[in-house]
Amino acid sequence: MKTSIFHRDISSFTLHIMAMAFMLCDHLWATLLSLDFLSNIGRLAFPIFAFLCAEGFRRTGDRKRYMLRMLIFALISEIPFNFFYGGAAIYPFHQNVLFTFLLALCLMAGVEKVRRRGSRVYTALALAGAAVLGMALGTLCMVDYYGAGVLSVLVFYVFSRRRWLDRIAQLLCLYYLNVVLLRGFQIPVTLGGLSFEIPRQGLALISLLFIWLYQGRQGPHPKWFRWFCYAFYPAHLAVLTLVLYMLIR
C-alpha cells in the first residue's frame, strides 16, 4: 500500500514552523519594520505555542526533563529578551514567554498529581485552583502575556479532545482571554459604509483554524529540530536587537 505524501491535516512540525514565522513577523514589526500587518500576523503565534506547550506536556515521556529544558532556555532567553523589550541587560518589569510556559507546565504537573491520586471532584478543584494561581502568578511575575498567557496553555490542556464541544470551549476561552483581558491596540475597520474598531489581539483567534487542523501527526521531528525550536527564541531576539542597535548608532 502506498502512503501519500499529501495530508489534509497539519503536523506538529508544521505548527512549530508557522508559530516561529508568525513570531518573527511580530518581532520584526517591533524592531526593524513598522508595518502594522506584521504585528497583525504576529497575533497568531502565541496561541499556537500555547497549544504546542500543552500538547508537548501530554505527549512527552519525561515531564521533568521537559520542564528542565523550558527552565534552561527561559534563563538563556532572559538577557536577549531584556535588551529587546527593555533596552538593558536587567529589566525586572517583564519576563520572557518561556517563563509563561514554565508556570503553566508546573501547574499542569500539579493537576496531574491530583488526578492520579484523587477523585474527579478533587481534580476539578485542582483545575480551578490552577486557573486562579496561574492568573495570579502570571500577573505578579509579569511574564509575557501575563496571567492570560498561562491560562491559554491551561485551556488547551483541559479542552484537549478533538471534538466540537472542546473547540467551542477553546474559542470562548480564548475570546475572553484575548479580546476582554489582553485587548491591546484597536484596528479601524470600514465595512459597508460602517466604521468600527476591533482589538488587534482578537486576531489571535484565527490561529484556532490551524490548531484544529492538527490531528496528532508529528511529522518530521529530528532531534536537532527540537533544539532549534528552543534556540530560535533567544537567537532571533539577539539578532534583531543587535541589528537594531547597529542601525541607530
Write the layout of secondary structure elements.
Layout: H1 12-31, H2 36-42, H3 45-59, H4 63-86, H5 97-117, H6 120-140, H7 146-158, H8 164-182, E1 186-191, E2 194-199, H9 207-211, H10 223-248
Antiparallel strand pairs: 1-2
Helix pairs in contact: 1-2, 1-3, 1-10, 3-5, 3-7, 4-5, 4-10, 5-6, 5-7, 6-7, 7-8
Give a short overview:
It contains ten helices and two strands. The protein has helices at about 10-30, 35-40, 45-60, 65-85, 95-115, 120-140, 145-160, 165-180, 205-210, 225-249; strands at about 185-190, 195-200. The chain is globular.
State the secondary-structure class: mainly alpha
Count, helices: 10
Strand order of the largest sheet: 1-2
3D shape = globular
> Distance N terminus to C terminus?
61 Å
Q: Main beta sheet, described? A: 2 strands, antiparallel
Report helical residue fraction.
55-70%
Uncertain runs with pLDDT below 50, 5 residues or more?
1-5
- The overall average pLDDT, rounded, is 92
What this model shows, in words?
With 249 residues, this protein is mainly alpha-helical. Helices cover 69% and strands 5% of the residues. It is built from ten helices and two strands. The chain has helices at 12-31, 36-42, 45-59, 63-86, 97-117, 120-140, 146-158, 164-182, 207-211, 223-248, and strands spanning 186-191, 194-199. Strands 1-2 form a two-stranded antiparallel ribbon. A hairpin with a 2-residue loop joins β1 and β2. The protein is globular and about 60 Å long.
